[in-house]
Write a structure and sequence with these properties.
Elements lengths: L11 H22 L6 E16 L1 H8 L3 E3 L6 E18 L5 E23 L2 E3 L5 E2 L4 E5 L4 E14 L2
């Protein structure tokens, strides 16, 4: 039969569980009582350029019509197209002999679309109204009245703040 003193012994798992619970409580208190919740700094105006690779000429023409950009649900104003430049699309192909060759893609174009938009400057970068985070080499979708395309951010400039 076990004595009363032996039933009150604690093992290592009990101490680890207690320490983990204590750290969790300290973390929650710190999170909600510190300034860490203030992530949005300022509203800024940004201009960014995206490269849309290998699209048909009708898509380039539709982008050149410009106009306002909308989010995919049509809920948010995502800015406007400032300019569109295009050039013939190319692709790098590696042959069986491990030699890389740049070839032209027939009837396809690379479009460089410059966009002006309002964004919020946060600790992680610049965020568009629909929650898209702008950063170099990130993929961004553009939806105009005439066409929707996806491209890669190649340039990002902050124009000014709304303060």
């Amino acid at each position: 039969m076990k004595s009363e003193a032996s039933s009150k012994k604690y093992n290592v798992v009990d101490f680890l569980a207690l320490a983990l619970a204590l750290l969790l409580i300290i973390g929650i208190v710190y999170r909600y009582t510190s300034d860490m919740t203030e992530t949005i700094k300022t509203n800024v105006k940004v201009e960014y350029t995206i490269k849309v690779h290998s699209i048909k000429d009708v898509y380039v023409a539709a982008l050149e019509k410009g106009g306002a950009l909308r989010s995919s649900g049509g809920t948010y104003d995502m800015g406007e197209i400032l300019s569109v430049a295009s050039s013939g699309a190319t692709e790098t192909v590696v042959g069986d002999d491990a030699v890389a060759v740049v070839i032209d893609i027939l009837d396809r174009y690379d479009a460089y679309v410059t966009i002006s938009s309002e964004a919020k400057e946060t600790e992680t970068g610049y965020t568009l109204p629909d929650g898209t985070v702008l950063a170099l080499e990130r993929s961004v979708s553009v939806l105009t009245k005439y066409v929707g395309v996806t491209g890669t951010v190649t340039e990002l400039n902050v124009i000014g703040t709304d303060e």
